[in-house]
């Protein structure tokens, strides 16, 4: 425990509060984010931050508070530190959003001597318990199969390959983050414990009116096995919080436009001829396909950065051939390098001394797909530079993008667990340390190496990269996917939970293995998974080598017909997805958002987990259970139109909608402008009839990209109104709309039959 307060020293954006056995630094930045660091912990160095720590808010000052404590008051947030070390984060109006109780530390057995005052050893363990409002709900913590709302329980913070496949309830998974989003009536806040060591977060929801009529607050307990006790808190609306998070940890990378189309992948393509057959199958049936992914079986002996010459005798030629049909090749890349003299990657790495070593200076060796393997130390800038240069081989083979796998990292020969020994040594940017600290950021640093390498090799193109594992800040380099989700209805539900949870943790581009990684989905399950995937950022089928096929025509003519419709819908929505990608880069808002995104005080919406918003305009209600042909849909406030029938529904409330095998319910917000691909291939604006009057005005945006380079696109904003039965569409700032407009949606009789007029 910190002990009793003894004094304080003002500093930029706050200052340092001194206790009998500890110190606490509080700093409010210009963007309103709050940093708290105990025992000398500073914001840097950090793998999460995008560059140096944001500047302090010079208007935020440390001043005495009642009861012998201290407080920092700023425009967006107030921080109150009590005399015993309790830290309260309050709204500008004084409502407490979060109460962090005094932390506790202890040195593990065998640690050298007691810690001096204000200084903790790197292996000092700590625990912090926090209280939140009784009505609060928890989200985030990276990719979690149970959710997106996180129920009572313990969630481990250790990136882990669960082995085989996973379902809801399996935890931890590949991509954990100490990032919580807490939503309550009083407000929303995000808390990020900037500590990459092994740990756990235990959550308990509160209860209103518990006991004798008093609320029982919710609480969370964060426990870490070492490292600093430092954390950030960002408060505001959900949109403002995610914007602040992106400003702190980096803007999400914008995928090239083709990466927003449909991807087909499989572990087990027999060779070039099978790839040609699959692509031809899509082409002959008129099914859009943007990319095809090659898994580890295209390598020579599973060795990374190689090609099996028998299966793929002319891979560059195959890539060029597919590109003529508009299909790109994407390559898997694993971090493990076969420890074999004569293997060019191993020989190069050994000469450069890039592999992780143990405390005695020997290469750490594990067993992965190619056999006995070594592991690059991506926490060393020199190693990242070396590794990034290796992607030249992938580009020369004709690949247009990469997906990182097995990078938790995984070793089948377990050192007590299926990863590297905790004693393995890492550079950690020159500070030095071991795998206890490096494990969770290993994949993040690998993603950085790949991204920066691709940028250097092809400076005029945005890279396409997504990673199975990662940590806070992964969005700077790319996205993620579900990993080996089990085939089954439970796996389908877990897929949606993962995408929503990752988006609320700052990673907006992700998606599942459609059909599940393992097993053979029934035609109905495959179709429902496919229909969900059509509305998710990464739209990819994928399966294990032992699993059933995933081509849409393998499930019969009825499934093929409905899957083809889903593919056409995705193609039609590509201008909208492109716009969402650009908005994510500018605002941090995920493409896929919980239904409470704009109305977080709606408690019924906070508990809704079977639907989502795609941007601001569309509400998607997938079918997640077998045999369902009608399903209830919880509506946020406002008017919503069924995109099939055009019928209007008013929220908040619940409606029951048809969900035939031909498609899942999708509703459009009244007044929204959705950019879509027109029949001639150009962009048209689909306008959903606004409500009458000024309060019914709607809006929408279109990102006009020049290509897949780095030039910032023009963002056009449109506003819509309904007056006297006439829908008007205007370009904000003046000027012609410039695109064909199609008005949709039935206006209720009292508003008259809508007609169209563009400004």
From TrEMBL:
Record domain Glycoside hydrolase family 31 TIM barrel: where: 252-580
PROSITE patterns (alphabetical): GLYCOSYL_HYDROL_F31_1
Keywords: Glycosidase, Hydrolase
Residues in Glycoside hydrolase family 31 N-terminal domain copies: 22-199
One Pfam family matching this protein: Glyco_hydro_31_2nd
Coiled coil ranges: none
UniProt domain Glycosyl hydrolase family 31 C-terminal: residue ranges: 588-674
Comp. bias (Basic and acidic residues): 743-759
Region (Disordered): 739-759
InterPro entries: Gal_mutarotase_sf_dom, GH, Glyco_hydro_31_AS, Glyco_hydro_31_C, Glyco_hydro_31_N_dom, Glyco_hydro_31_TIM, Glyco_hydro_b
Recorded superkingdom: Bacteria
One MF term in the entry's GO annotations: hydrolase activity
Family under the similarity heading: Belongs to the glycosyl hydrolase 31 family.
Protein name (record): Glycosyl hydrolase
């Amino acid at each position: 425990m910190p002990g009793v307060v003894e004094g304080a020293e003002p500093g930029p954006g706050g200052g340092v509060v001194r206790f009998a056995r500890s110190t606490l630094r509080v700093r409010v930045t210009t963007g309103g984010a709050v940093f708290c660091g105990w025992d000398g912990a500073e914001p840097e160095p950090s793998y999460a931050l995008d560059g140096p720590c944001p500047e302090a808010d010079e208007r935020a000052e440390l001043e005495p508070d009642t009861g012998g404590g201290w407080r920092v008051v700023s425009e967006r947030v107030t921080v109150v530190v009590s005399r015993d070390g309790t830290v309260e984060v309050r709204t500008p109006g004084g409502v407490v959003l979060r109460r962090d109780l005094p932390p506790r530390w202890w040195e593990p057995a065998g640690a050298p001597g007691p810690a001096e005052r204000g200084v903790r050893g790197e292996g000092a363990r700590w625990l912090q318990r926090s209280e939140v409002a009784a009505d609060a709900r928890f989200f985030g913590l990276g990719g979690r199969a149970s959710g997106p709302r996180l129920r009572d329980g313990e969630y481990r913070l250790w990136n882990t390959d669960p082995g085989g496949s996973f379902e809801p309830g399996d935890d931890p998974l590949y991509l954990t983050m100490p990032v919580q989003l807490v939503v309550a009536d009083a407000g929303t806040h995000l808390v990020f414990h900037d500590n990459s060591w092994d740990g756990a977060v235990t959550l308990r929801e509160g209860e209103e009116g518990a006991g004798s009529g008093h609320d029982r607050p919710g609480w969370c307990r964060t426990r870490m096995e070492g490292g600093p006790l430092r954390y950030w808190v960002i408060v505001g609306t959900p949109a403002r919080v995610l914007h602040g998070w992106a400003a702190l940890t980096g803007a999400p990378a914008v995928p090239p436009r083709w990466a927003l189309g449909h991807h087909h992948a499989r572990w087990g393509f027999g060779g070039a001829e099978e790839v040609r057959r699959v692509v031809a199958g899509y082409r002959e049936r008129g099914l859009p396909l943007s990319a095809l992914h090659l898994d580890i079986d295209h390598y020579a002996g599973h060795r990374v950065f190689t090609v099996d010459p028998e299966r793929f005798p002319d891979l560059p030629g195959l890539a060029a051939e597919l590109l003529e049909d508009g299909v790109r090749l994407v390559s898997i890349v694993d971090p493990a390098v076969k420890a074999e003299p004569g293997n060019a990657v191993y020989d190069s790495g050994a000469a450069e001394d890039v592999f992780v070593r143990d405390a005695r200076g020997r290469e750490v060796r594990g067993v992965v797909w190619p056999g006995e393997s070594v592991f690059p130390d991506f926490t060393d800038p020199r190693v990242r530079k070396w590794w990034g240069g290796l992607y030249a081989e992938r580009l020369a083979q004709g690949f247009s993008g990469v997906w990182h796998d097995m990078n938790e990292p995984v070793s089948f020969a377990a050192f007590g667990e299926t990863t590297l020994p905790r004693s393995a040594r890492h550079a950690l940017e020159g500070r030095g340390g071991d795998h206890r600290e490096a494990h969770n950021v290993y994949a993040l640093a690998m993603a950085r190496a790949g991204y920066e390498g691709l940028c250097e090799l092809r400076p005029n193109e945005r890279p396409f990269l997504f990673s199975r594992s990662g940590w806070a800040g992964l969005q700077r380099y790319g996205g993620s996917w579900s990993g080996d989700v089990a085939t089954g209805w439970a796996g389908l539900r877990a897929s949606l939970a993962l995408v929503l949870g990752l988006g609320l943790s700052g990673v907006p581009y992700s998606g599942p293995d459609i059909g599940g990684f393992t097993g053979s989905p029934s035609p109905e399950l495959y179709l429902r998974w496919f229909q969900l995937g059509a509305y998710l950022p990464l739209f990819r089928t994928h399966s294990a080598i032992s699993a059933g096929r995933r081509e849409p025509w393998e499930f019969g003519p009825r499934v093929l017909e409905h899957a083809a419709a889903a593919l056409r819908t995705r193609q039609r929505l590509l201008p909208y997805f492109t716009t969402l990608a650009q908005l994510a880069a500018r605002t941090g808002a995920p493409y896929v958002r919980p239904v409470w995104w704009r109305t977080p005080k709606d408690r019924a919406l906070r508990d809704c987990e079977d639907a989502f918003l795609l941007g601001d305009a569309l509400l998607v209600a997938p079918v997640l259970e077998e045999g369902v042909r009608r399903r209830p849909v919880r509506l946020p406030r406002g008017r919503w139109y069924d995109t099939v029938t055009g019928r209007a529904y008013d929220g908040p409330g619940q409606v029951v909608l048809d969900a035939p095998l031909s498609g899942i319910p999708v509703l459009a917000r009244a007044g929204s402008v959705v950019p879509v691909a027109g029949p001639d291939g150009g962009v048209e604006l689909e306008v959903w009839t606004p409500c009458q009057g000024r309060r019914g005005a709607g809006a929408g945006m279109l990102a006009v990209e020049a290509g897949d380079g780095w030039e910032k696109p023009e963002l056009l904003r449109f506003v819509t109104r309904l007056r006297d039965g006439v829908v008007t569409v205007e370009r904000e700032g003046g000027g012609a709309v410039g695109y064909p407009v199609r008005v949709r949606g039935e206006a209720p009789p009292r508003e008259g039959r809508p007609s169209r007029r563009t400004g």
